Amino acid sequence: MTDTPRPDRAQTIRPKYIGKKVERFEDPRLLTGRGRYSADIKADRMVHLAFVRSDQAHARIVSVDTSDAAEAPGVIAVYTAADLPELPELSAPSAMKDYHATVCPALARDTVRHVGEAVAVVVAQDRYLAEDAAALVMVDLEPLGATADPVAALKPDAVPLHDNVPGNKVLERSFATGDAPGEIAKAAHTVSGRFRMRRKSPLAMETRSYVAQYDTGRDQLVLHTSSNIPGIVRDELARLLHLPGNRFQVVSPDVGGSFGGKGSVYPEEIIVVMLARELERPVKFVSDRLEDLTSTSQAFDEIIEATLAFDEDGIFIALDAEVIGDIGAYSIVPWTAALEPVQVVSFLPGPYRTPHYRGRVRGVCTPKPPTGPYRGVGRPMAVFAMERLVDLAAAKLGVEPDEIRRRNLVRPEEFPFRIGSGIRWDRSGFLECLENAVAAVDVASFRKRQTEARENGKWLGLGFGTYAELTGIGSRIAVAPGMPINTGTETAAVRVDSTGAVTATFATASHGQSLETTLAQIVAEELGVRPQDVTIKQGDTSLTPHGTGTYASRSAVIGGGAAIVSTRALLKKVQAAAGVLFDVEPDTVETGDGEIFVPGTNHHITFGDLARAVYSDMKALPLEARKPLEAQEAFDPWLGTTTAATHVAEVEIDAETLEIRITRFLVAEDCGRMINPLVVDGQVHGGVVQGIGAAILEELHYDETGQLLSATLADYLIPTAAEVPTLEVNHIETELPDNPGGFRGMGEGGTIGAPAAIANAISDAVAHLGIGVEELPMTPNKLFRLIAERQEKE
Amino acid sequence: MKPAPFEYLRPGTLEEALVALDHDDAKIIAGGQTLVPMMNFRLVAPERLVDINGIAELSRINETEGGIRIGALVRHAQAARDPLLKNAFPVVADAMRHVAHLAVRNRGTIGGSLCHADPSAEWPLLISLLDGGIEIAGGSGTRTCTPGEFFFAPLMTDLADDEVLTGVVLPRLPAGTGMAFDEIAQRAGDFAVVACGATVEMGGDRIVSARLAFGGLSDVPVRMADVEQAMAGATVADIAGAVAGCADGLEPNEDMHAAADYRRSLAPVLARRVLTAAAGRAGGRE
To answer: A55 — contact with chain B (CB < 8 Å)?
Structure first.
C-alpha cells in the first residue's frame, strides 16, 4: 500500500444497503415450499386435538356427555372444563376507568357466549379420528337468548352477556377539546352521517396452529405457535400455568400471515400446553377454516354517528362523534376491548385542523367472537367516517374533494400538531402526499371522462382517502389505554461469532413483514458487512429476555432502531479490537463489505480474521483486548412517529347491473426513509388489497340470534387478483422522523386509506342519484337497495 | 374439516360401477370439487365412495348422429378447449370461463355439475338452453331425460341412488345459429348471481328462432318460453321490449349476496345483452 493521504471519513462511508431493493431472503425458502410452519412439525407419539364448539351464540351448558367419544377408535382422552380443575381463565386487565374485564375460561364452563366457543376437546391419534369422536360428544345447551345487534344490546331489555358487565357496556371513553356541540349549533354549515363498517375476519392464509412438546427429563415445555406475539404468549401462559420462563419456550416459526388475528392469546394455546404436560406427549392443534372464521378474533364492527361543522370557506370548526363498538363476547387478551373502538375516537379528527372535538365511544358485548387487533386498528373506520364527512362538506360547498383537503390539512409549519383527542402528529407529508396524488390523477380531466361515461351507462367515481397514523409507538403511549404491557421497547443483540459470521437477534416475529431482509440490511450497513451475510433470529423467547413481537407497525421503527444502536455498539468493539491488532486509534478503523481496514494503509483483514484473533488465536491480541464481539442494546422511541398518505380510487359502476369495478388505485405515502422499496411496495399492495376487501367484499354476516351465515370462503368473499387493479405507489420523503433510522411504520396504511377512498369513489359515482355510501362493504346488492329506497322516497 | 370414514371403490367399467352402487349409502365421486368439500364439512358422510374416474369411456367427447355427446367425466377445461364443441357450440367455451377457477375447471366434471344441480351453475343452464339429452345408466338399462325432467331443485334430480349419469347429447343447431353467454357474479369465479345464455337463428334481418335460459332465478335453470315466442319473427331492435320484466313472475332464492328483487332486475339486462350478442354472431356475421 502507498502512503496516500487518508480520505475524509465522510467520503469512505460504508456501502449503503438501507434504501436498496434487496430481494427478500425469505423468498427462496417460502416460495419453494421449504418453509417450516407450526403445522409442519412432527414428533414421536404426537397426538392431535379437535375441539367441540358451541353451535349456539348464548346458552347455558346443561351437560356435556363425552362417554361415546371417549370410547371411539384412536381416542386418548376427552376433556371438558369439569375435567380440568386447574383450567385457567383469560381476562384482560386495564387501568382504564369505565372498563370491565370479562372472564373467558379456556374451555367454556357454565355458559357459551358465541358460536364457535370451545366446550370440549378430544385428543386422538390423528385429526380424522379426533373429528370422528368430536362428532360423538353430546352437548346439551339451554338457550339464554341473544341480543346480537350492538345498538339493541345497549338497551335496558337486552339480554346481559356477563354478570359483571352492566348493560353489556364493557367500556366507555370520551375525548373533548373546546366546545364541539356549541360550535356545531351555531356553524354556517354542517354535514352528518351514520357510518358503519361491518364485521370482518383477518383471514390469514395459514390458520392458527399450535404444537406443544414436553421434555419430561428436563421439565421443559416448548410451544410452537403461529402467533405474531410469542413474547406476550410466553409471559401470559407462564403466569397462568405457573411456569418459569426458562422452562417454557415459545417459538413462532414461519408464520403465514396474521393481520392481527394471531396477535392475541388464545384458549387453544393454553389447552395445547396444558395437555402436553398432562399427557406427557407432543400435542398438535391446527385449526381448520371453519374454526378460523368462528374462533379467531374479528375486526371493525363499529357505528359512528358524526357531524362536521365548517365555515363558508370550508374551514373545519368542529367535529362531534358518537361511536358504538361491537366488541363481541369477550375483551380480547391482552389488548382489551378498548384497542379497536377507542382508537376510532382517538384518530377520528385525522390529519385535519379541527379546533373543537368531542368523541365518545361505548364498547358493547354481543354474542359473537371477540374483536381484536386487525391491520389498521380503529383507523380504517375512523378514516372512512371522516373522509366521507370531508367529501360531503366539499359537495355542500361545491368544491372539489382535493381542494377542501388542501384547506384543512395540517400544514408543514404547524407540526408538531396535537389533535382534539390528544394525539400528537410529528412532521409528515400530509399536504405533500395530497398534492402528489392530485397531480397523478388530474381531477379536471377525470370530470370530463365522468360526464362522457354517464351517457354510455357507466358511472365513474373518483375518491380520496387522506389519513395519518401513529406508528412505532414507544413506551410513553400504551397501545391500548390502561393496558399493563410495554410494547414500546425492543432489544437487539448483534454478534460476530468465532467464524466471523454475524447474527442479530430480536424479539420481533415476522409473519410476512420481510424482517429477515430489512433488519439484515440495517445491520449490514451499520457494521460494514453484506446483508446476505447477516442472519436474523427472531420469534423465539429463548433468544431474548423480553420482547413482545411484531404488530402495530412497530418492527421497522423500534426493531430497526434497536438494530442500529446495537450494531453501532458492536462496531465500537470491532474497531477497538482491530485498533489493537493494527496498533492504530480505533476510530481510524473502517469497515465495509465484510472487511476491516484502515484507509490509506495496508491494514486490511476480514471479519473472520478479526474473529480468529479475538476468539481463537491466543497470541494475536493481549488477553484484555479479547472481548466478545457482541452488543445488546434496547431502543424505545418513547413517542410514536406519524405516517401519512393519500389514497385515490377510481371506480366504474355498470348503471344497469350495479357491478362495481375498481379501475385505478394510487397511493402517495410518506413512510420516512425506506429500508427496502420492494418491501414497502409489497406492504402497501397487500394492505390496499385488504382495504378493497373491506370496501366491497368482506363481511361476516351474523343473524339476529348470533349465528354466522358466512362461515365458508364461498360466502365470506375476499379479493382475488381479478378484483384488484394495478396498484400505483408514489413514495414521498419529507423531513425524517426523530429516530435512529429515520423510519416510519408502514405495514398497516394500505388497509387504513383504501376503504375510505373507495367509499368516496363509489359515492362520487352515484352522487347524481342523491345517494352516498354510509356502510362498508358496499356491494351491488346494497347499491340496488339504496337506489330503490331513494326512489321510494321521491 | 376432515371427512367421516368411508369405503372407497374404484371400478374399471360401468357395469362394475353399477354393482358397487348397489349399496344403502353409496355416492359417486368424479371430480370431487363439490362432494369433497361437503364431505369435509360433514354435510354428507356416505359410507361408500364409488370413484368412476377409471371408466375411460365416460371422458370422451364425440359426434353422434345429429349431435355431440359429452361423457359425464369430461372436465370443464376439457370441454372449453374441445374442437368439436368449439365448432358446434361455442357457447360452451364462453360459459366455462365463468366456472370457478382453473384448478376447479381442471378437475370438475360436467356430470358432477349436473348432478349437484346448483341453479346458478353453468352446465345445468347450458343443457337447458341446448335441449340436451341426459343419459342415465341403471341396473335395468339406460334411459334419457330432458332437462325439464331431470332437475328438481338444488341437489335434487331424477337420478336414482343406484344410477350413473353417463353423458349428455347436445342436438345440433341449424348452421349459423348465434350463441352467447354472460353472467353476473360478485367476484370472478363465484357462483352466478344471475347467468344467462341464448341462441339466435337469423333469417335476413329477422329472428327466425331464439332460445333464452337463465340460472340463478329459480330452483332450477329456467327457459323463457314467452320471450322465445315473442322473438320469432322479431328484429334485434325488438329485443329490449321483449325481455322487459321477463323475470317478474319468478321467485329467485335470496341470500346474503343478492336479494330476489336485485336478481330479477338483472334478468332483462342480461337477456338483452346476451340475445343481442347471439344475434350479432348469427349467420357467421361476427
So the answer is: no
